[in-house]
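S.,

Sequence below, as promised.
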Amino acid sequence: MKLLAVSPYIPWPLHGGPQLRIFNLMSQLTQRGHDVVLLAGQNRDAPGDKHPLRTVFSRIELFPVDMRSRGVVASRSLVSRSSYPFTRY
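The prediction came back faster than expected:
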C-alpha cells in the first residue's frame, strides 16, 4: 500500500518524542512492505541520498514553512479561536 506521511518538519535528528514517533511508526510500516512517502515542512536542508531517512521513506518532498517567531504565534493563538499548532503550521 502507498502511504503519505505529513509532518510540519523533517523528523530528524531523533532527539524528541515527535521525531522518534514519526520515524518509528513509518519504519514499521516500511518493514511490513508499505511504500511510505514523506511530505514535510522545510526547516533545514533536504536529507541527502545516504541519509537514514531514505531507508524509511521512498520519497521525501518538502514544502516551505513560515518561520515566524514562536512568541508572536503563541500570542496570536491566545487571542484567536485557533489552537497554537493550527496557527503555527
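The radius of gyration is 15 Å.

Coffee later?
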